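REQUEST ID: PR-0412
SUBMITTED BY: lab tech R.K.
PRIORITY: routine
TASK: structure prediction, single protein chain
INPUT:
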Amino acid sequence: MAEPVSAPKGTYDILPDDQPLRRWVVSQAEAVFQRYGYGRIDTPTFEETRLFSRGVGESTDIVRKEMYTFEDLGGRSMTLRPEGTAPVARAYIEHGMHTLPQPVKLYYHSPMFRYESPQSGRYRQHHQLGIEAFGSAAPEVDAEVIGVLAALYRELGLKELDLRLNSMGCRECRPGYSAALREFLAKNTEAFCGECRERAQLNPMRTFDCKVPACREALETAPRLTDHLCPACAAHHARLQECLAVQDISFVPDHTLVRGMDYYTRTTFEFQSPLLGAQSGVGGGGRYDDLVETIGGPATPGVGFGTGVERIILALARGGGTPPGPRHPVVYLVALTDEARREAFSLAHQCRSLGVAAELDYMSRSAKGQMKQAGRSKARYAFILGEQELADHVVTVRDLVSGIERSLPGQEAVSLAAAQSADL
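STATUS: complete
OUTPUT:
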C-alpha cells in the first residue's frame, strides 16, 4: 500500500460539517458590507511579485520571509496573494475606477497565503474578509470602515473585543518621528533582539512588529508617533475619534500599533480578543493614502481592513457562542422493497426540486438499519414506503421528534416537508 499523502503543513481541509458555520460568517459579513454600500470584487490568486514588493514594502516580514513566490513558465516572478489590499488597489488602477464617483467601496472574501509558523487560528493558507474604500481622505471614511468591522463582530456575537487605535502620520511628519525612533533604538540597542536591530536599520517602525516580550517592554518607552503628528494628521486623528464616539465605539490608544505593511498612513487600528492568547488580533487595517500612487496609479487616498475567517471562528468557539451548526435533512426516505426504492428515489427528487433537503439509503440496509440511519441524520421526518404504501398510493410519514405516524398521499407528504423546510 502506498504511503498516504497529507495536507501540507499549515493548511487544512474544510469538511462538510465545518461548512455551515463558515458560510454563515461569510453571509453575515456580506450582508453588513452591502448595507454600508460595498460591492464585491475578486482578484487573481496570484499576482506579479513586484506588486507586493513595491506595495507592501521590501522591509516587511511579509515580503522578506513569508511570500510564496515562484517563476512561471514565461520566466516571470509570481506570488500567491499574501494580503488583499494591494491586489484590490491594482484592480482599481487597471480598470480606471478613479473615473467613477468616489469613494469606490469594495469588499472581498479570498484565500491568502503566507509562509509563517502555523499557530492556533493562523495558517499558511487562510481566508480573509476585507473592505477597501478608495478616493476620499475624509476621517469619516476611516470611522465608517471601523464601524463596518465593529458591526460585523457585533452581529456575529463576538465578545470581549478591544479596539486599538493609532496614527502613523504622513510623508510630512513621519520622517521626524523615524529619526527620533532610530535615535532611541540606537541608544537602547542592547535591549533588543538581533531581528529588531536589523529592522532598525531597514525601517525602524518595523521594530513594533516584534513579538519578543523583552523587545515589546522596551518599546513601551519609545517615542510616540502621535506626539510628532503634523497639524493636518492631528486634526484627522481628532475628527476620527469624534466619529467613533458617535458610533458608540470605544478604543484604547496604542502607539505601538503599526500593523505589518509599509503602505499605512495616518489611521491604523486592530480589534483584539484576550480569548485568543498572545496572538490576539481578530482583524484590523487602516489608511493607505500613498499605496495607489506607489504601484503606478494616480494619487488616491484609501482605507480598509482585513479580518481572518479562521480567527473569527476561533474567537466564537472560545467565547462560548452558539453559531449555527450543520443543516440536517428534513426528510429521510425508508424503502422496504426494491420497488419501493424506485418510488423513494422519485420522491427524493420531488423534495429536492422544491428546495427540501432529503436523504435516502444507497447501501441496501434493512428496514431497521434505514430507520437507525434516519435518526442519525437528524431528519425531521421519515417517509416510509413498503408494499402496502405502494398499493394504497400513500407514504407513511413518521415525525422523528414526536414519533407520531400518519399516512399521506405522496404529494401531500412532499408539501408537508416543503412547509417544514420553509420554517427552518
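NOTES: The longest helix spans residues 139-156.
REVIEWED BY: pending
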